[in-house]
Design brief:
about 80% helix; mainly alpha; 14 helices
């Protein structure tokens, strides 16, 4: 009886920290929503709604379908990385996998869930770690470019010299991640030597192969091309609301907001993206209502992309390409 009582106390003691962590995680993830509600309480919601009501769904459908175009460009980049291990994959299958993986990435911080597409590869490469390393390397290009653009735009817009010491190491990290990603992963693994995934991370870093100058140039062009399509997609939707700002300003603002949205404190950047855009628009002499309108356009594109991605994901799971 004493042992059972002690065992019960032990189980209860274990459950309490788990519950605390769960409550804390829920609080952190929902903080973005609270932040959005606070922001909206200070703005003219009627003006925002009137802008959004200007959008005609049928007219903007081709704009939303640009997601398939940017996914195709990223598929070509992914295939370029795959060709380095002397494996040939059909573009159609890779494209379906790239589009389908978006909805999984949408559920994870920093969209890192998109690397699940390696599950299609490990069956054909017969090397799960190699497949994972290629998918991570592919994702790094998007991560580095948006980080580079976002930080650069913030430094340019604020014109604060104090930001340069912060921005320079970040931009240097972006450059190093694209040139020698295996070195960065190996360094991270040494920093978190006791983490349960450290050994796997080390194995992934060893499988990564440095890109040649020609391969880096191609990856860079494809990455820039895909993001130009995305910026155009959001910008055209934003223009459909009746607002018409400089496309370079809008693109820079989206990139800067995307950097902040990488923080795992909200779902789909809700709240964090809004406060970032309000601050950027204020620095640019533009109304906070127009900032929230842009944020709503970004969210609308995100949701539309999820709906487009879903049937591709269901197809992949039903055919057994990804489990």
């Amino acid at each position: 009886g004493l042992n059972n009582s002690m065992g019960g106390d032990s189980d209860s003691g274990t459950r309490i920290p788990i519950m605390i962590r769960l409550i804390f995680r829920i609080f952190i993830r929902s903080s973005g929503l609270f932040l959005l509600v606070f922001i909206l309480s200070k703005l003219d919601i009627r003006d925002i709604m009137n802008r959004l009501n200007n959008i005609h769904l049928i007219a903007v459908t081709p704009i939303l379908m640009l997601f398939l175009a940017l996914s195709y460009v990223k598929t070509i980049r992914w295939r370029l990385l795959l060709n380095r291990v002397n494996n040939r994959f059909g573009t159609g299958k890779l494209f379906s996998t790239y589009v389908g993986s978006f909805i999984i990435g949408a559920l994870t911080p920093g969209r890192m869930g998109e690397i699940i597409k390696y599950r299609l590869l490990d069956r054909r490469l017969t090397d799960e770690i190699m497949a994972l390393s290629i998918s991570i390397q592919d994702r790094m290009w998007d991560f580095c470019l948006v980080l580079f653009l976002g930080i650069s735009f913030i430094v340019y817009l604020t014109q604060f010299v104090v930001l340069i010491p912060i921005a320079f190491p970040i931009l240097s990290l972006c450059l190093f991640l694209t040139i020698r990603p295996e070195k960065i992963l190996s360094y991270i693994a040494r920093m978190f030597a006791k983490h349960r995934n450290t050994e796997r991370l080390i194995r992934v870093s060893k499988k990564m192969k440095p890109l040649s100058f020609s391969e880096m140039a191609k990856c860079l062009m494809l990455t820039v091309g895909s993001w130009i399509i995305y910026f155009t997609q959001v910008y055209l939707l934003f223009v459909a609301t009746g607002l018409n700002f400089n496309i370079l300003f809008i693109s820079g603002a989206i990139a800067a907001a995307a950097v902040v949205a990488l923080l795992p404190v909200s779902f789909a950047g809700i709240g964090t993206r809004d406060i970032t855009l309000v601050g950027i628009f204020a620095l640019g002499g533009k109304s906070p209502e127009s900032a929230i309108t842009l944020s709503a356009c970004v969210l609308a594109v995100f949701i539309a992309n999820c709906f487009i991605s879903l049937p591709f994901w269901l197809y992949l799971t039903n055919t057994g390409d990804i489990e």
